[in-house]
C-alpha cells in the first residue's frame, strides 16, 4: 500500500479532526434538496399499489375490469403480467446453512403475490393512471377474491406443530435452524459454573419511520432496451446488480439507478422492493415514465420492519465472577417473506456482537428463523449489533444482583485488557485496539456516578423513582467490501469525489471533503461529492454497517496518493525539472503544490490541473489530467466501542418514564469531524430510547396491524429527551488508513442497555428484576401494581 499517512491537521481549518458544519445543510434548510418525489419527468404517469387487506389467504381471483373503466386509468397489472415479462423474484442473498449443513429454505418472492397473500399489505396488483387520484380510484375498484386462512404473527407460535403453514416447501415455517459454537464445551462450562444467570428477553419489533416515505420513478428506453430507476437507496451500485441480475434478468449495463437526497433509511431502503419492478414493467408497456410515492399508512404496512426476536439468554460465571460462556437460544421473526439479508440479524450479527468488549471464551448461538403473517423484517440501525450488546449487558446486571456483586466490578473483571491486543475473540473477530475499562471509568465520572444518591433522594422527595443504568458496548462493523474513490478536476475549478457509498442523512460531503483536503490540499470549498449514479461506478459497497468513512475515506486517500504521483510527473514538465526532484507540499494556507526540492519554484495543484487541460502539444508521458479512478480493495472490520450512562425518573402513579440524564464516552478511533460524529451518536441514542420506552409493533390474532399510524405508534419527541453529554476516548484503528472505527450505529448499541438497566434499577424497590422493551407507561404501571397489589 502506498504511503497514505495523514498530514498534521492542526493547521488545516478544514482538515481531519475539525468540527466543520455540513456542506449540504444550507441546501436542505432552504428547501433545495432533491428527493425522489421532487422529480417530475415529462409525460409521467402515476401508480398506486393494491394491497391485501388480509394477513393470510389463497388468491382465487383478481377482477380488474371495473378498475380499467375508471377515467384516466391506463393499465392494471397483476403478478401474471409481470411473470409473462420474464421478471425474476427477490430472494435472500446470504449463503447461510442449517446446523446440519443444508442450505436455508430460501423463498422466492415475486413482485406481486400470485398464489397466496402472506401479510396485510402484501401487494397483489397495481394501477397506472394519468393522475395520482385516478390511480387511487382505480386501485379501489380492483376486486380481490381471497379465501382467508388462519394467521400466525409470533415466531415462537409459528414453530408450533399446529401453526398455519405459509409455504409448502418450508416445513414448520422454519427457513433456517442456525447454530454457532461448540455445544459440548459450552454445556461443560455451564455445568462447571459457580453461578448461572438466565433471562427471557424480547427484542421488540419496530417500524423504521424514515422521514421520507419510499418513492420511485421507472423509465424505459425502447431504442436501447435500458431501464432507469429513480429511487431512494443506500447504494446504487449494489441495487443495480440486484435489479439487473435477479429481477429484470438483463445485463447490468441495461440498468441505471439514480438516487438524489434520501430522507432516512437505517437499512430499510437498501434493497429491491416489489414496487420497483412494477414501475419498470409499466414504463416499458406504456412508453412513459411511471411514478409511485407511498403514503405513511403504506409505509407502516410495506416498509421492512426491524428487530423482533424472542431470546433465552444465559451466562455462566466462575467463582471470581469471570464469564465462562454465554448462550443464546432465539426465535427470529422473518415476516411473510425472506428479505435480502433478513436472517443476518439474529444469526451472524448476534454471534459477532454478543462478545462485546468482554473476554468470554465460549459463545453459543442457536436461532430458529421463521416466517409469519407479518410485514417482512430486515436490517434496522445496528441490525443485530445493539441486540447482542443488550443481551450481554442485561445478563451482567442480573448476574450482579443474583451474586451480590457490583455490576461495575463485574464489567471490569471481564473486560479485555489493553495488553491483550490483538485479541482474537471466540467469535473469530480480531480486535486491534481499545481501552474498555478506561472508557467505562471516564463515563462513570462524566455521569457523576458517585453523586447519584443525592439525585435519587431529590427525585423521591418529588414522588418519583430514579434509576441509573450502564450500557457498555462494542460492535463489529460491516464486513470488508470494495469501494470506489474517484477524483476529478473540473474545468470550472471544482474537484469532484465519486464514491459508491450513499448519504441518506449522514452528511458524507463534509468529512469526505475534509479527508481529500487533508490528503491533497485542494480548496475545501471547491470539493463536490457525487454518489447516486450507478453509471459512474465500477465498485461500491453502499452505506451500511458503520463502514462509510473507513471505506470511502481510505479510497479517497489512496486515490489522492495516485493524484500526487501523476502530479509530480506533470509538474516536472511544467517546471522543467526531473520527476525525482519534485516534491508535494502545502503552502501557508494548507493548499497543495508541487515544488522543485531546495528551490522556491512551485506550482499549485489547482493551477497544474488547469494547465494540463490546456497544454499544447504535451510530451508523450505527460498525464492527460490529474483525474484518478481507484478502487480501494477492502479493510477488515473495525470495533467501535464505548459506555453510556443513563438516569431515568418514573412516576409510580402513571408509569411514565422520563430520561433525565445521559452521557456517553466513545472510542470511534480517529474522528474526522467531531460535530457530525456527535450528531450521529445523538441520533442512534434517540432511536434506542424510542425502542426502549415508546415503540412497539402490535398485531391482532388475525394478523391486522394494530399500530399502523402515529395515533397508535409512539416516537420520541424533542421534549422527551435530555441534553446528551458526549466525550471521546479514541484508540485509533490499526487496520484502515484513516484509523476510524465507525459511529453510525453505536448510539443504539449503548442506549438500549443503558436505558433498560436504568428502568429496572428504578423499579428494583418493588422487587422487579427485568422488564422487556418497550417500558411504556401502561407496562410500567402494571408491573408496579402487580407487585403492590
Automatic annotation (TrEMBL):
Pfam families: Ald_Xan_dh_C, MoCoBD_1, MoCoBD_2. Keywords: Molybdenum, Oxidoreductase. Residues 30-150 form the Aldehyde oxidase/xanthine dehydrogenase a/b hammerhead domain. It comes from the Bacteria. InterPro entries: Ald_Oxase/Xan_DH_a/b, Ald_Oxase/Xan_DH_a/b_sf, Ald_Oxase/xanthine_DH-like, AldOxase/xan_DH_MoCoBD1, AldOxase/xan_DH_MoCoBD2, AldOxase/xan_DH_Mopterin-bd_sf. Gene3D superfamilies: Aldehyde oxidase/xanthine dehydrogenase, a/b hammerhead, Aldehyde oxidase/xanthine dehydrogenase, molybdopterin binding domain. This is Xanthine dehydrogenase family protein molybdopterin-binding subunit. It comes from Belnapia mucosa.
